[in-house]
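Morning!

As promised:
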Amino acid sequence: MSVSIEISDVIKKYQDNTVIKGLSLSIKPGEFFTLLGPSGCGKTTLLRMIIGFNSIEGGTIAVDGNVINDIPVNKRNMGMVFQNYAIFPHLSVADNVAFGLKQRNIPKDEQKKLVEEILDVVKIGHLKDRMPTQLSGGQQQRVALARAIVIHPQVLLMDEPLSNLDAKLRVEMRNAIKSIQQKVGITTVYVTHDQEEALAVSDRIAVMNDGVIQQVGTPKHIYQRPYNRFVSHFIGLSNFFDAKLTKVNGMPAVDFGGYVEAMTNIDTTILGDEWENAPVMVAVRPEEFAVAKDGEGLEATVLSSVFLGISTHYFMRLADGKDVEVITPSDANAILPDGAKVKLRVLPQRINVFTADGSRTLIADDEDGEPA
Amino acid sequence: MSLKKPSIWMAFTLVILCFFVLFVVYPLFLIMYQSVVDPVNHQLTLDYFTKFFGRKFYWSTLVNSFSVTICSTLLAALIGLPMAYLLRSYKIPASKYVNILIVISYLSPPFIGAYAWIQLLGRNGFITQLINQLPGIHFGGIYGFAGIVLVFSLQSFPLIYMYVSGALKNMDSSLNEAAESLGCGAFDRVRQIILPLVMPSLLAGSLLVFMRVFSDFGTPMLIGEGYKTFPVLIYTQFMGEVSTDDHFAASLCVIVVAITLFLFFLQRMMAKHYSYAMTALKPMQPVKAKGMEKIASYLFVYGVCFIAMLPQLTVIFTSFLETVGGAVYTGSFSLMNYENTLFAKDNSSIFNTYAFGLAAIVFVVVLGILISYLTVRKPSMLTSLLDTLTMFPYIIPGSVLGIALLSSFNSGLIVLSGTALIIIISLTIRRMPYTIRSSTAIIGQISPSVEEAAVSLGASEFTSFRKVMVPMMLPGVLAGAIMSWITLISELSSSIILYTQSTSTLTVAIYAEVIRSNFGNAAAYSTILTLTSILSLLLFFKLTKNEDISV
C-alpha cells in the first residue's frame, strides 16, 4: 500500500529567479528518504512542491503513478510535520490529532479510537487532554507526528522537525521517528541540514546544493563514496590533496608528490586515454590514514592531540605546511607526543579520488549507488 | 497559492471594497465636489475657500485651533513624559492604580471634562465661589483659551504617557547601566540616553494628540464661549440654527482633512526616520526614591492623577446632588437625577448607546479580522487597495465623516439619514483602522505553517481560516474590541451630526443636557457612561492580564 514518488524535471521559479531548474528523483515505496543540504539549497522548496504549498513551474510530480501537480493541497492526502510543529494552540492534544479526521467526516467514535491508537504509537496517550502550552518541545513534536500520520496519508513529509529540540532530545526523537516510520511503513520525505541526523534515520539520502541534486544513495554509500567534492566536504570531515595519477605496474596510482599509493578502483575511462599524469583531487577522511613511525608515506609532525576515548584525534602538519586531521583508534600504544615526526599512509581502498576540479569521482562504483 | 478560479477571498475582498467605496470614498468625494461647486449654476468655483480665507471672522478660527492645539500638545507632553518616567523609574505606591486611573481619564470623552471643569472653575463653579470669597478678588471662571487648553492637556497627557511608558518598558536597563559605567551622571543619562530613545514614541504620541485635539469640537463648544475654533465653525456652518451653508461647510471639511492628512504623513515620515528596534531582555526596574526625590515624585504623580480624575469625581459627586430644574443645586443629596435619566420613561439614549456600540463592535470585529487577514495573507492589488482605503477614516475627523455621510445619504438612491444604521456605520468606520492594525499585528504573530498544517490535513482554505485562524486571533481581537467599545460609547463628534430624537446616544444626551444647563441630568448620564467604561476596562484587564494598554 506504500506509494512511490516520481519527481521528473521539476522547475521552481520565484518571479525571474529559477531556484530549481529541472530536478528529478524517484523515491521508492515505504522508503525513508532524506533531502540533505545547507540552508538555501532548495530542499524545503522541493518538499513544499511535493505537498503543494509551492507551485510547480515545470515538470511533474507523480505519486503512485498519478501526476499531482494540479491537485490542491487539501486533497493530496499527505501528512506534514512542520519545523515549528504548527500545533493549533487553541485545541487540546486529542483535538489537534483529530483535526484531519474531522475534515474527512469520520464518525466521532471512530475518530476517538484512531486518535487513541495513534497517541499510543507516539507514546503520549496520557497527554490527550492537555493543551499545547502545557507540552514540552518533544511532546509537541510527537503531537505533530501523530496528527500527520493519523489521517493515513500516502506520503509523510517532514521539514526539519528536530531543529527546535535540544541535542539530547534530538537523538531520542530521531530514533522515535525512525521506529514509528518503520512501524507505519509510510513513504517519508525528510528535510534536514544536519548530516548526522540524515545518516541516522534515512534509507536513502539526496544531497542537494544550489537547487541541484549532488548525489543520491544510502547513508553508508554517501559517506564512504561521495560523488564529488561538495558531498565529501559537506558530509563528515575530509582532508583534500592536490595529487596526480601515475602508473604503477600498468595500474593507476595516486602520486602525492613523491609518495605513491597504488589504487585498484580507479575508473580511468572518465579521463580518457591521456589519464597518466592527470591532476586529481584526493579526499582522505581522518580515519583513512595509517600512522607509522617510519617507512613510506607523507612526512608529518604532530601539532596537538585530543584523546576521545574510543579514538584519538591528531592535528598534524605536513612537510609542505598543509594541516591535516587524523583519527586513530585508541589502542594500547602511547599517544604520540606533540612535535613527534611520523609518516602518514592513506588507505587506498577507502580514500576517494575526484577529477581535479572536484566535480565528480574517479572511483569505480562498487555498490549500487546512483550517479546524480 | 494562485488565484485561478474566483475564490471566496476574492468575493470577500470585493464586498468589503464596495462597503468602503460606498461609505467612505463616495461621501468624501461628494464633500470635495460640494466644496468647489456652486449649488445654483453647477459651475466650478473657489468662492468658498476665498470666503474662508478672506474674512478674519472665519480664518481666525483656524489660528485659534492651532494655538490651543499646540499649547495643549506641549502641555500634555510636559505632563505625560515625566509621569511615564517617574512611574517607570521609581517605586511609587499604588502605581498600578495610578496607571488605571490615567487610562480612565483618557477614555472619558473630552467634552465631559469640559463641562466638569465648568462646574469647578466656571462662572458659578465650586472653586470659583471659594476663590471669590477671598477679599478683593473677582474671578470670572475659565472660559475661552485657558479653559480649552486646560481640558485638552489633561485629557491628552495620558496618550503621551502610554506611548512613552511603552517605549521605556522596551528599553533594556543595560543601556542605562552602560552609560553609567562610562561615567554618565543621572541627569545626563535622562538627557543623552533616555530622552533620545523615547523621542520617536513621544513624537508619535504628540502627533496623535495634535490630530485628536485639532478635530475635537465638543470641548471648545462648551467651554470656549467666544473663543471659536475651527471644528466649532464647521459644526455651526453645517448644523447651526442660523445661516447654514452646506457647501461652505464642505470646503471647511476639505481644509481640515488636508491638515490632518499632512500631519498623518508627517507622522509616518518621522516614525520611519526616528525609530529604534528595542526589545528589553531586562527592563528598567523601578527603584525606591529617597528624600527630596521621593517627595517631589510622589507629589507630581499623585497630584497629576488627582487633577486628571477631578472631572470624573465631580461628575459622579454632582450626579447625587438634588437640583432645582437641573441647574441649581439645593445642597442636599438625592437620587433625583437618576430618576430623571436612568429610570425615566424615555431612557432610549442609554439603550441606544449599548445597542449601537455592540452592533458596531460586531461589524468592526468581523470586518477587522477579514480585512487584516486578506491584506496580510492574500496580498494582491485589490487587497492593498483595501488596506489603503480602510486607513482613510484614521485621518478623517468624526465631524467630517458625519457631515459626509449625512450629505450622501440624505436623499437619492439610498436614504439612511435619521436611521440607527447610519450611526452604526459611522462608528464602525471610525474604529476600523485601529482594529485592523491590531488584528494585523496578531496575525503577524501566527506562523503561516499553522494554517498550512490545517490545509495539509485536508481542510479547505476557508475551513482553516474559520477553524484555526479565527479561534487563534479571537482572544487578542476581543481584547481590542473592548477598548473599541469604550471609545465607541464615548463618541460624540459624528453622532452629534447624525442623531435624531430616536437615535440619540448617551454622549449626545449629555451634550444636550449641558447645553440646556441641566447639569443634574448630564451628571447622571455621565456617571452611567463613566461606570460602563470603568467596568469594561476592568473586564479588559481581567481578560488580558495586562496593565499596558495601546489604544
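Chain A is about 25% helix and 35% strand.

Hope this helps with the figure draft.
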